[in-house]
Amino acid sequence: MAKALTFNMGGNVFCAAPVKLERKKVYGWTNLVATDRLGETCSIAYLSPDDALVIPSGGLKQATVDEAGRWIDKNQLVAYGEDGEPLPLVPSSFDVTITLSETASEEEFLDNEWESVYQLGAPALVEAVGDLIYKFDFSYRGGANHCDAYLMNTPNGLFLFAGNRQEFPLLTLAEETVIDDNEETEEEIDELDFGMF
Within 10 A of 116 (CB to CB), how many other CB atoms are there? Predict the structure, then answer.
């Protein structure tokens, strides 16, 4: 069974298991299968840099090593912020109760780049959220990274949007330009020979 998120709104507790909305679920997908002359399915393999070895699929993996070439596990790595200080670790949102108290405007909601979208099937939570948009911090696995998450109702159900706020600058003219209607301009326009074009 899928893990559930626990929400607290005004002392009322709601549980809902998020279902990730993926592009292939919305638009469908196709698989390209390569076959040999006999119709047998081909498998992927890689050549080593010196072309001496054929490496089957799954035989290569990325790794992090230290200066001496020793393997480093991911749990040994430390994330640092722009100020050079270690970033604080946050727990997974599945391991804590999420308090829904902060609401967001539609404009704030739209000023995001979405990383993930989840559908929540919790009728009681749908009714509690109503027409408001709730904002909270969301971290799927825990660690140094977290997203801004928004919980909102749509005609197709309750959705959790997880992403990061973006700045969208608006471009405008620095100052208005006024075109004067004077006789010289009108005379110049009248004297144009459109046959030249």
Answer: 16
CA distances 196 to 43, 73, 192, 193, Å, are 65, 74, 9, 6
Q: Are 106 and 138 in contact (CB under 8 A)?
A: no
Length of the chain: 197
Q: What is the 3-state secondary structure (H, E, C) of the chain?
A: CCCCEEEEECCEEEEECEEECCHHHHHCCCCCCCECCCCCECCCEEECCCCCCEEECCCCCCCCECCCCCECCHHHCCCECCCCCECCCECCCCCCEEECCEECCHHHHHCEEEEEEEEECCHHHHHHHCCCCEEEEECCCCECCCEEEEEEEECCEEEEEEEEECCCCCCCCCCCCCCCCCHHHHHHHHCCCHHHC
Query: For the segment 163-190, what is each residue's pLDDT rounded down to a tens digit?
Result: 999 887 766 666 666 666 555 555 555 5
Residue 139 burial (C-beta neighbours within 10 Å; 0-12, 13-18, 19+):
buried
∠90-161-28 over CA atoms, to 5°? 120
d(CA 153, CA 16): 14
Question: Residue 148 is encoded by which pair of tokens?
Answer: 């801004």
Confidence of residue 191 (pLDDT cuts 50, 70, 90): low
CA dihedral (28, 59, 46, 35) positive or negative:
negative
Overall average pLDDT of the 103-110 stretch: 93
